[in-house]
Amino acid sequence: MVYKPLPGRYNKYIMIFYTEGICLVKKMIIYLTLNLISFIIYGVDKYNAVHQGARIHEGLLLLLGFLLPIGAITGTLVFNHKVNIPAFRFAVPVFLCLHVLLYIFIA
Q1: Sequence-distant (≥ 6) Cβ neighbours of residue 77 within 8 angstroms
Q2: DSSP class of residue 99?
Q3: In terms of C-beta density within 10 A (0-12 exposed, 13-18 middle, 19 or more buried), how is residue 104 classed?
Q4: Where along the chain do its domains lie?
Q5: Which of 1, 12, 84, 93 has a C-alpha 20 to 30 A away from that of 25?
């Protein structure tokens, strides 16, 4: 843990947000931005499905669900996309649980 002293009386609270030189808030912003990209990709695939456009392969959507499950789940729910396919209905929530468990054990 890296401690970056700042002027003021809140120095002991600043230490909590730094891990290995990268601010935890920055890590969360990057993670949520990538999940937003996953959400947008699910929306683009739904748009292409409705308008008979070029589709995104299910394998790529499942890979996004594995790497970025928050964006995949919200994209599935908001766009009502891939809700009847069992691989998406059951696997993506399991991926989200794995991400939560990894966060608990790593952090």
Answers
A1: 83
A2: H
A3: exposed
A4: 38-106
A5: 93
**Residues near 31 by Cβ (< 8 Å), separated by ≥ 6?**
none
Q: At 18, phi and psi to the nearest 5?
A: -115, 130
CA distance 88 to 104: 24
Phi, psi of 34 (to 5 degrees): -65, -35
Write down the pLDDT at residue 24: 72
d(CA 63, CA 37): 13
Q: Residue 41 in 3-state DSSP?
A: helix
Q: What is the pLDDT along the chain (107 residues), one digit of tens a residue?
A: 555 555 555 555 555 555 555 677 788 889 899 999 999 999 999 999 999 999 999 999 999 999 999 999 999 999 998 888 988 889 999 999 998 998 888 76
**Predicted pLDDT of residue 73:** 93
